[in-house]
Amino acid sequence: DVVLGQYVGDPSGEGDSKLGYLDDPTVPKGSCTPTFATAVLYVQNERWDGIPFILRCGKALNERKAEVRLQFTDVPGDIFAGRCQRNELVVRVQPDEAIYLKMMTKRPGVFFSPEETELDLTYRSRYK
C-alpha cells in the first residue's frame, strides 16, 4: 500500500507555512511531483509474516525525523478485550538517535489491566 501527496500552503499560517509546494517560484506551474510518501511493506517469509514495515517521508512536515518502526503481530487470544496496542520496535536515526521497544504489559495485581511500557536507549541520555 502506497500513498503519495504534495504539500499545500496554510492560508492562516505565517511565513513559510503559508506557502505550498506550487507557490515556490522554482517549481513549474501545475507540477505533480510528490513531496510526501507513505508505504506499508510486508516481507513474505515465515518470520515476518503479517508484520507491516511502515515507511514515511516528505518535505514540509510538522516535524523532521527519520526512523524505522516495526509493529509486531497481535498476541493470539485477546485476554485484555481489545485494550492493547501492538508492540513496536522503533529505531530513530534523527533527531536524537534512539532505539526503543514499546510493549503492552499487565499491570501488577489481580486485575487484567494493560499498560504501555518502554525499553528506551536514547543515545543522548545514555552517552552524556
Enumerate the strands of the largest sheet in spatial order, edge to edge or round the barrel.
Answer: 1-2-3-4-5-6-7
Strand content: 35-45%
Query: What's the rounded overall pLDDT mean?
Result: 82
Which bin fits the share of residues in helices? Answer: under 10%
Give start-end ranges of low-pLDDT stretches: none
The multimeric state of the shown protein is: single chain
Overview of the molecule:
With 128 residues, the chain is mostly beta strands. It folds into two domains: 1-58, no CATH class; 63-128, no CATH class. 3% of the residues lie in helices and 38% in strands. Strands 1-2-3-4-5-6-7 form a seven-stranded antiparallel β-sheet. A hairpin with a 7-residue loop joins β3 (52-58) and β4. The longest helix has 4 residues, at 123-126. The N and C termini lie far apart (40 Å). The model has no long low-confidence stretch (mean pLDDT 82).
Which key terms come to mind for this protein?
128 residues; 7-stranded antiparallel β-sheet; single chain; 1 helix; mainly beta
What's this model, at a glance?
With 128 residues, the chain is mainly beta. The chain is built from one helix and seven strands; from the N terminus they run βββββββα.
SSE arrangement:
Blueprint: E1 2-5, E2 36-42, E3 52-58, E4 66-71, E5 88-94, E6 98-106, E7 114-122, H1 123-126
Antiparallel strand pairs: 1-2, 2-3, 3-4, 4-5, 5-6, 6-7
